[in-house]
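Annotated sample (chain length 198).
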Amino acid sequence: MLKRWLLILVATLSLAGCGYNDFQRLDEASKSAWSEVLNQYQRRADLVPNIVAAVKGEANFEQETLTKVIDARAKATSIQVTPETLNNPEAFNRFQQAQSELSGALSRLMAVSERYPDLKANQAFRDLRVTLEGTENRITVARNRFIQTIQEYNVLARSFPTMLTAKVLGYQPKPNFTVQNEAQISTPPTVDFSAPKK
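Output written by the structure step:
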């Protein structure tokens, strides 16, 4: 009888240490955090047509800058994102790269807009700019939560003894956001406050 209880105790402790429940919890947490990231990126993509429309009202605005924003948005929204994207490093990287390109194009647009006093004075554009800044902050918060969740999941998948559970049940480490252009983003954008050329 004592052997039986001892065997049950050992089996219970073994199962508790295998990490199965932790994998389930963190997998669901990563899906939830990913959904929030996607939600914020979609919010930003929905703002782009309004920003472009407001900027188009400025007669002399640089067409190349607008075209880059429009193209980057089209590319970012054309990528099909599925729950499997979280488990596919190549698909995740394509998504991340497209969002990074849209971030860069919007950043350039905002920097260039500084040279247009009429545009800066336009209340609709100012409101859109504030909304975009708020959305970028939300994206940062959502990405940080996602990064933290994926980090916890990946540590669990690579730690002993839970790595054994990961191998047996096929829990692979998940891709995470990375800095694509670290040298480029460490250099602040050049802003020219001179009047636009007529």
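Annotation: The chain has a mean pLDDT of 84.
Annotation: The longest helix spans residues 20-56.
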